[in-house]
Amino acid sequence: MTTPGERSTLSFLPRWSIVWAMMRKDLAAYTRDRFYVLVTILALVVYVVLYWVLPSTVNESIEVGVHHSDLDSAFEQVTSSGTEGIEFTEFASEEELLSAIGANGEDGSLAIAISFPPDFVTQIAGGKDTTVKLYVDQDVPDEVRRAISGFVREFSLAIAGDTLPVTLPSEEKIILGVDRAGEQVSLREKLRPMIAFLVLMMETLALGSLVAVELHSRTLGALLVTPLRVLDFLTAKALFGTLLALSQAVFILLLVNGFASGAAPIFVALVLGALLVTGFGLISGSTGRDFLGMMLFGLLFMIPLAVPAVAVLFPGSTSLWVKIIPSYGLVEIIFRASSYQAGWRELMPFMAMLLGWCLAIFGVGLYILTRRVRTL
Amino acid sequence: MNLRLILRLLKRDLDLGPRPPFVIFAVTFPLVMTLVIQLVFGSLLDPEPRFGIVDHGSSQIASAAREVSGISVTDVDTDAELKQLVADHDLDAGIVLHDGFDEELQAGDLPFLGLYIAGESLASDRLILTEIVTELVRDAADNAADVEIDLIAVGDEPSVPIETRLLPFLVLYALLIAGAAVPALSIVQEREKRTLNALLITPVRVSDVLISRAVMGYLLAMIAAIFTLALNGAFGEHPWAMTLILAVAAVMAAEWGLLMGVLASDTNALFTMLKTMNIFFFGPAIFFLFPNLPEWIAHIFPTYYFLRPMFDVAVHGASLNDALPWLAAALGFCLLFVPVIGFGTNRMRRALAV
Amino acid sequence: MTDPAIRVDGLSFSYGDLLAVDNVSFEVAPGEILGFLGPNGAGKSTTIKVLTGQLTQTSGEATVLGMEVVSQRDEVQGRIGVSFEEKNLYENMSAKENLSFFASLFGIKGFDPNPLLKAVGLDGRGDERVSGFSKGMQQRLMVARSLVNDPEVLFLDEPTDGLDPVSSNAIRALITEQAERGVAVILTTHDMLEADKLSDRVAFINEGAIVALDTPEALKMKYGSRTVRLRFTEGDGVREEVVSLEEGNAGDALKAAVSNGDLATIHTEEATLEQIFIEITGRGLES
After folding, report:
1. Are residues C242 and C183 in the same domain?
2. Which residue of C has its CA nearest to A34?
3. B116 and B192 share a domain?
4. Domain count along chain C
5. How confident is the model at residue B336 (pLDDT cuts 50, 70, 90)?
6. A27 — contact with chain B (CB < 8 Å)?
7. Which of the residues in chain C have pLDDT under 50?
8. What is the residue-averaged pLDDT of chain A?
């Protein structure tokens, strides 16, 4: 004899008419909560506005104002060869320079300015000491002041013909890794994975809420005395959650230009990401004893899952402990495909990682919900 | 309004009220956020260039580099490791100083300096680090330029660091979670479970219940806000002024909690309300984070009227006299909330009667 | 002789070590209303859950409409209707939406909820959200939902709970109508008056076992005593006298009593089902 609560009828396929009926009902429940829909729309708008408000380029250079009178050829030589990291704006007079830096009590447009004395070249060429004025705003960090001071010194040494007394590697060996000078990834591009992640995670809470409501309001009991089976219920919840998360994520990535490059791998990643968050939604919805518990579980998942998306904002390689977080693969795929035009080959390891986590979390979510349903 | 019943309800709320997971969340969130902001946000928005050194011969250049302020210096063991770190952009640049480098430099032998720059590094960081290296090499070679730099500071005092500008967010979080969300949740749960109906057939009145919740929210808000400011060392030079400001802020937070509690029909609605109305609560904090934004916009947010004096006292050393006009305005807003709460309460009464 | 709609034979169910249903056997014919009476925790709900496929028995057999519940659960659930004691409606949906949704689960196409809503007195309220319904309205909707698939067997748990007398009568009429159409009904209730009025037979359950199963009349005849209560007007007050009809000289005793004063009213009384239950089990229906 079967044990109490165990179904004797086994069937491995859901009944799609029933699943469809459940999904339509869930969609009605979801959209019926006008507040929630409003918040979802508001969040999407905020994310999109935030994205487009942020600058699309990275300002890599330190803007420096310059006034000189006898440096035309020397200075032109320096600026035409491109001094990496400095952008010079020349001023014909010192008064104009002081005005630009706000030395006269007005708001200035520059934070640093150099004023060379009129006889600078003559003094340097003659081996005599000379003084260069460096105007610096209070907010300029020490290292920047030091760097510009260093520039001035090196400039004067270059005029004097005094090269650096070391041997450096050849230019092509100095830059390691892909040289992205002038092509840096902007902050808003780095935020794309975070935006997609946040949209997906919000739907974790939505799905968790839908599951929790069915469990706690006991409507599930009413469902289980109809032809609906546990498998139908699970399929409907999982499908609804996944489609809801996926549609919103795709929509928002379209609005933030997320598919301009690597559309196919990004879409696949979003599908897997939607499945992943659905799994977490099933876990949080089944585990919380009430709505509040469900919400706290959802937030509990959200914090560690957000770490990879935050890590993308920082330069450097990712720590090992971050790489084992389930959302890491999703973030890397979106970031690399959209910002670095990475192809399938480069993205495959991340795809495999994401798929693995997907199956695991989704499986755990289904298992927990099944157990919860069966013990009702 | 019955003081005895209010105190009785308050005692029960404090004994049983907020559920442990939420209390843990309310207490730990400001702590976690403080740590995150101190450790993380500063380096995100104002990152220091990262420099690596492989020093095979105890070079004075390496020692000098470690003393340079404004850059982050890492000692690396091997050339290969340094190159890998630079290639991965875990460092913006690095140098390799072989054994005997200093001696060769002083002898004028043009020693080889392994200089490596990360391709992903910002041009400004490259400039900073290469100029520092150049300067250190020149110093070590006694090869200084014949030019003196006259450093002239311009402008007002330095602007407030980012970690400090995030303080209003932290305080608002503490006030909102502990002072507003906990009492709001308490009211809504009583409605959902209908224990409020059970209370109201005793001598307890709706006003008693709401006042006891407001007092609970007030106490929690004060504790959380004081805790947050203390954690961030942000009480300023006038702690009593700060305490008074927090007292007013806690009143507003408690009122906020009451308002949400009477308007939300269930926890689902409360959660949604928390998400939407928080834009209104948190709005002015943006103006502290980005001081260039026009400040007049912040004046439309009620929370600005305690955030402004709080920030001024904590960061700029303002006194109680400076804070009083702002606090008066904040209290004015608190008074304005009262009829709104009254309206919400009447609505709740009608719903309970159904 | 027609096959029973419900047949239970030696049914037992245990929650771990707790024997909740102990060797229960009974049958319900098509068109019959069987009342299940017993205190909380007696095993009524567990028995119903086994018959509706929510639980699987530890031992014994349970068949509904000739089908084993365990092995043919889907078929059984397609032909039964269940109304729960606890309200489990979708509160953010309207009454019509609730009914239509459940109809869709049964694969019913072109379902019109209006006749059902009218039958339970909710016509005109079909488009309102359940969250705005009173307790009684929700209960009526629960009953309506149990009829969505035109069931051949009905399991009704406290169907008139929270209803006013007029609505209760309407629901009882509905139940009777269903029985007259040949639907077998198992009715779980604490309302002994309802059980008495509606049930063709009544089963008393106590501590997991059926302790009595018969028509209400037969139970009253078998257990409890019949009496006549006479009220006499005396001055400004009233005097009562009770005469037992169980004695051999009941007729003479009654005659003597009737002529013993100014008779105001005379009522026959018989044992209530609760009194019978107490007599059989030593405990009340509410305990």
Report:
1. no
2. C92
3. no
4. 2
5. very high
6. no
7. 287
8. 84
**Which residue intervals of chain A bear CATH 3.40.1710?**
62-174
The verdict on B187 and B52 lying in the same domain is no
pLDDT tens digits, B129-174? 999 999 999 999 888 777 888 888 887 666 666 667 777 878 887 8
Q: Please answer whether residues A130 and A168 qualify as being in contact, where contact means their C-beta atoms are separated by less than 8 angstroms.
A: no
Q: Is B189 in the same domain as B337?
A: yes
**Residues B269 and B183 both lie in one domain:** yes
CB-based contact C104 A223, cutoff 8 Å: no
- Residue B155 belongs to some domain of the structure: no
pTM tops 0.90: no
Cβ neighbours of A309 (radius 10 Å): 25
| Interval A148-164: pLDDT, tens | 999 999 888 888 888 88
Which one of B90, B131, B152 has the shortest CB-CB distance to A317?
B90
Cross-chain residue pair A222–C88, CB shorter than 8 Å: yes
CB B180 within 8 A of CB B249: no
| Residue-range definition of the domain harbouring residue B93 | 48-140
Among candidate residues C215, C250, C279, the one where a domain is terminated: C215
In C84-180, which ranges are E strands?
153-157
B195 interfaces chain A, CB cutoff of 8 Å: no
Structural domain boundaries enclosing C237: 225-269
Inter-helix orientation angle B239-263/B206-231, to 10°: 140
Chain A partners of B182 at a C-beta cutoff of 8 Å? none
Does ipTM top 0.85? no
**Same-domain pairing of B72 and B36:** no
Per DSSP, the residues of A324-374 read TSTTHHHHHHHHHHHHS---HHHHHHHHHHHHHHHHHHHHHHHHHHHHHHH
Nearest-by-CA chain B residue for A144: B128
Do C50 and C172 share a structural domain? yes
Contact present, B73 and B51 (Cβ < 8 Å)? yes
Rounded-to-integer distance, Cα A138 and Cα A145, Å: 10
Q: Which of A290-294, A321-325, C59-63, C224-228 has the lowest mean pLDDT?
A: A290-294
CATH number at residue B72: 3.40.190.10
Beta bridge partners of C61: C9
Question: With an 8 Å Cβ cutoff, is B144 touching chain A?
Answer: yes
Burial category of B320 from C-beta neighbours within 10 Å (exposed 0-12, middle 13-18, buried 19 and up):
middle
Q: Which CATH architecture has domain A62-174?
A: 3-Layer(aba) Sandwich (3.40)
Distance in Å, alpha carbon of A22 to nearest chain C alpha carbon: 8
- Beta-carbon separation of B122 and A60 below 8 A: yes
Instruction: Sort out which chain A residues have CB atoms less than 8 A from B261's CB and list them.
Output: none
Is there a contact between A136 and B183 (Cβ–Cβ < 8 Å)? no
In a domain, C282, yes or no: no
- The whole-number pLDDT of residue C221 equals 82
- Label the pairing between strands C184-188 and C80-83: unpaired
| Average pLDDT, integer, range A80-94 | 80
C141 and C257 in a single domain? The answer is: no
Q: Is residue C137 part of a domain?
A: yes
Same domain, yes or no, for B171 and B60? no
C77·A219 Cβ contact <8 A: no
